[in-house]
C-alpha cells in the first residue's frame, strides 16, 4: 500500500473497474484505505462537540 492517499481521494467508476479487470489488489487496497480514512475523518468531525460560549 502506498502512502499517497490524495491520489485516491475520489476515484471514478471507470478507474475502479480498470483495477478490477487488471486484478490489481494493491491499487484497490489503496482506494479502499483512502475511502475509509475519509469516512472516519467525516465521522470524527461530526462527533466532535461544538464549543458553546
Outline the secondary-structure elements:
Layout: H1 13-21, H2 25-47
Concise account of the structure shown:
With 53 residues, the protein is mainly α. Helices cover 60% and strands 0% of the residues.
Oligomer: single chain
The major sheet is characterized as: none
Q: In DSSP terms, counting alpha (H) and pi (I) runs of 4 or more, how many helices?
A: 2
Radius of gyration: 15 Å
Pattern of helices and strands? HH
| Distance between the first and last residues' Cα | 44 Å
- What's the β-strand tally? 0
Q: Please tell me what the overall shape is.
A: elongated
Structural class: mainly alpha
Protein name: Fucose permease
Tell me what the structure shows:
- The structure is a single chain.
- This protein is mainly α and 53 residues long.
- The chain has a domain at 13-47.
- Helix content is 60%, strand content 0%.
- It contains two helices and no strands.
- It has helices spanning 13-21, 25-47.
- It is elongated, with a radius of gyration of 15 Å.
- The termini are far apart.
- The model has no long low-confidence stretch (mean pLDDT 75).
Amino acid at each position: 500500500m502506498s502512502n499517497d492517499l490524495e491520489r485516491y481521494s475520489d476515484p471514478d467508476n471507470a478507474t475502479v473497474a480498470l483495477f478490477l479487470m487488471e486484478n490489481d489488489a494493491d491499487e484497490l487496497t489503496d482506494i479502499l484505505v483512502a475511502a475509509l480514512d475519509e469516512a472516519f475523518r467525516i465521522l470524527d468531525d461530526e462527533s466532535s462537540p461544538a464549543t458553546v460560549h
